[in-house]
Write a structure and sequence with these properties.
Layout lengths: L2 H13 L34 E4 L6 E6 L4 H16 L5 E6 L9 H12 L3 H13 L1 H4 L4 H14 L4 H7 L3 H17 L6 E4 L2 E2 L2 H9 L3 H13 L9
Parallel strand pairs: 2-3
Antiparallel strand pairs: 1-3, 2-4, 4-5
């Protein structure tokens, strides 16, 4: 798919059914006491935020994403490169915001990523990457097909497949996704990808540059944020 089509789909993800992607009452989670700009720590009974890079960094980049959203898929290569370049200087957090009204397999994909994460933080990120890299292959899968597809990905990244399948119905996994979505609701998010540096939301222009361009606009902002904390940004290639 061309970059132009990626951005068209990204706009669709952002605008269509905006008011309808919010949490239903039965799925709502109270996050009123939590700061969306800070990482949520793991506990014995709850999955914490997945943090890539320096978890102690003052500079926190947060993505609210949908694994089936073409716009998120279009932004993925640039975001992956950026998080690798800045991993010693920032904390990157991915939060699930599946747009279930327009992406029927998005929630199942988020569940697969979180289930993988129960076998190690690195496994979450590997499944995260595999899902985006193979987005076209599973997006059209039927309900009957998708579990086998995701199980094959689990096998390929070295997971215990039986445990993975069991964890697809793990209550902690469902609660983690609900909390992520509740954070998005608290912030008024209606589409994906939506990104924040701390409390500052990236503009549409900056998101477009991630999908169609080089990601320079986001890197400029990260550099400024790092310098504001007294740090020195990494050298760009």
């Amino acid at each position: 798919m061309t970059r132009t089509r990626w951005i068209i789909f990204a706009v669709i993800c952002t605008l269509i059914l905006g008011g309808l992607v919010l949490l239903s009452k039965k799925d709502s989670v109270d996050v009123s006491s939590l700061d969306p700009s800070k990482a949520v720590s793991q506990t014995e009974t709850a999955i914490g935020d997945h943090v890539y890079g320096d978890a102690s960094s003052e500079v926190v980049l947060i993505e609210y994403g949908d694994f089936q959203c073409p716009g998120c898929g279009g932004a993925f290569p640039q975001l992956k490169a950026i998080k690798e370049l800045y991993k010693d200087d920032i904390a990157f957090i991915f939060r699930n915001f599946p747009l279930t009204n327009i992406h029927p397999n998005a929630l199942a994909a988020a569940t697969a990523a979180e289930a993988a994460g129960l076998q190690g933080e690195d496994k979450f990120w590997r499944m995260h990457d595999v899902l985006f890299q193979n987005q076209d292959a599973w997006s059209g899968a039927t309900t009957a097909q998708r579990t086998d597809v995701f199980a094959e990905y689990a096998k390929n990244i070295g997971l215990d497949v039986n445990k993975f399948k069991e964890d697809l119905s793990n209550k902690q996994v469902a609660a983690k996704i609900s909390r992520d979505r509740a954070f998005g609701q608290k912030l008024g998010i209606t589409g994906t990808p939506t990104l924040y540096i701390g409390n500052e939301k990236l503009s549409d222009e900056e998101i477009t540059d991630l999908i169609q361009g080089s990601g320079e606009k986001l890197m400029d902002k990260l550099d400024a944020a790092i310098k504001a904390t007294g740090g020195e940004p990494p050298t760009r290639p």
